[in-house]
């Protein structure tokens, strides 16, 4: 549920200009995933740009575990002064409420959305474990139907958005595909490159260099339109799976009760910082596309994505295990 404070924030955010430099205090950007991953390509450049403008010091802090929930819990308990910022992908905010029977946080009651930062898509990726003559998604689906015992696909985590892409594809194609969950993208990529698993559903930025080198091949991307990073690869929508258009966003949140002017100030600085040309170049190298919004727009995005995933999860009957 969207609380009245979030709506008030959304309506007033545009009234507050970027802040004057603060001279004291340390702000922490808390990520739920390991350092060196996709989130670092966003958090660390933004920390540099916010330092001396939003707070005297801005640091990036990784609090990993439970698919991002450890970081979420930590920020939920933090003082609502704008100095502890949660950076989190969309799934723990809009997907987990539908997959877990019980969560220790309410995404919209316990937090105030500040802004999205980037969006990114997924690739259905084949490795050397899939016969070389299989060139297209149609080829793969035919092969999977003929070889059900080998028709497995890897995902970085069970119950993730990538996992649901596989479930939706299997359901739409009318075949059985077995998901194999890994503990993150790195071990999944290692097994895909090594031929231990025939295909995987990966974050695009993790596999794009290997696709371009010829070590892997992308059968489809999940974005609504073709990715500018792999323009020759068709989308699932193009291939006839019109309901499977999935991309995630990375967003910033602060604890509930953070002052409205503080949130508006942070939003303005994030949006301004994301326009830096050098940051755009860095993001593109990692297949990330800038996406910033007002708090009002972000609130509406969360509501739409939550409703969509609730329907998808219900259709699959999936329930996550703690």
Walk me through this protein's architecture.
- With 322 residues, the chain is of the alpha/beta class.
- The protein has 2 domains: 4-119 and 249-316, 3-Layer(aba) Sandwich (D-Maltodextrin-Binding Protein, domain 2); 121-221, 3-Layer(aba) Sandwich (D-Maltodextrin-Binding Protein, domain 2).
- 39% of the residues lie in helices and 20% in strands.
- It is built from 11 helices and 10 strands.
- Strands 1, 2, 3, 4, 5, 6, 7, 8, 9 and 10 form a 10-stranded mixed beta sheet that branches.
- Helix 6 (161-173) links the parallel strand 5 (152-155) and strand 6 (178-181).
- Helix 1 crosses helix 11 and helix 4 runs parallel beside helix 11 (295-316).
- It starts with a helix and ends in a 6-residue tail after the last helix.
- The model is unreliable at 4-23 (pLDDT under 50).
Please provide the count of β strands.
Answer: 10
Residue share in helix: 25-40%
Looking at the structure, what is the overall shape?
globular
Q: How large is the share of residues in beta strands? A: 15-25%
The major pleated sheet works out as: 10 strands, mixed
Helical stretch tally: 11
**CATH top level assignment of the largest domain:** Alpha Beta
> At the fourth CATH level, what is the homologous superfamily of the largest domain?
Bordetella uptake gene, domain 1
What separation lies between the terminal Cα atoms?
Answer: 23 Å
Q: Report the order of strands and helices.
A: HEHEHEHEHEHEHEHEEHHEH
Mean pLDDT: 92
Q: What low-confidence regions span 5 or more consecutive residues with pLDDT below 50?
A: 4-23
What Rg is obtained from the alpha carbons, in whole angstroms? 20 Å
CATH architecture of the largest domain: 3-Layer(aba) Sandwich
Task: Give the quaternary arrangement of the chains.
Answer: single chain
Structural class: alpha/beta
Count of individual domains: 2
CATH topology of the largest domain: D-Maltodextrin-Binding Protein, domain 2
């Amino acid at each position: 549920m969207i609380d009245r404070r979030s709506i008030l924030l959304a309506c007033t955010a545009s009234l507050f200009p970027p802040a004057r430099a603060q001279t004291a205090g340390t702000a922490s950007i808390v990520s739920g995933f390991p350092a060196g991953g996709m989130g670092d390509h966003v958090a660390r450049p933004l920390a540099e740009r916010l330092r001396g403008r939003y707070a005297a010091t801005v640091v990036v802090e990784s609090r990993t575990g439970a698919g991002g929930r450890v970081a979420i819990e930590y920020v939920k308990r933090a003082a609502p002064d704008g100095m502890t910022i949660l950076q989190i992908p969309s799934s723990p905010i809009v997907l987990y409420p539908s997959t877990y029977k019980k969560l220790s946080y309410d995404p919209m009651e316990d937090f105030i959305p500040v802004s999205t930062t980037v969006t990114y898509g997924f690739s259905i990726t084949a490795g050397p474990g899939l016969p070389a003559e299989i060139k297209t998604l149609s080829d793969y689906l035919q092969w999977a139907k003929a070889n059900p015992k080998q028709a497995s696909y890897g995902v970085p985590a069970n119950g993730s958005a990538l996992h649901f892409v596989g479930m939706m594809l299997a359901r739409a194609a009318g075949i059985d595909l077995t998901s194999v969950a890994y503990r993150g993208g790195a071990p999944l990529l290692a097994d895909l490159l090594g031929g231990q698993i025939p295909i995987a559903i990966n974050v695009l930025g993790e596999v794009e260099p290997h696709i371009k080198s010829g070590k892997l091949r992308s059968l489809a991307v999940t974005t609504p339109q073709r990715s500018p990073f792999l323009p020759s690869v068709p989308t699932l929508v193009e291939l006839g799976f019109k309901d499977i258009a999935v991309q995630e966003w990375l967003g910033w949140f602060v604890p509930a009760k953070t002052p409205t002017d503080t949130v508006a100030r942070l939003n303005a600085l994030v949006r301004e910082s994301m326009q830096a040309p050098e940051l755009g170049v860095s993001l593109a190298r990692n297949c990330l596309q800038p996406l910033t919004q007002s708090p009002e727009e972000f609130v509406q995005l969360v509501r739409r994505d939550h409703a969509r995933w609730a329907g998808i999860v219900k259709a699959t009957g999936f329930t996550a295990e703690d």
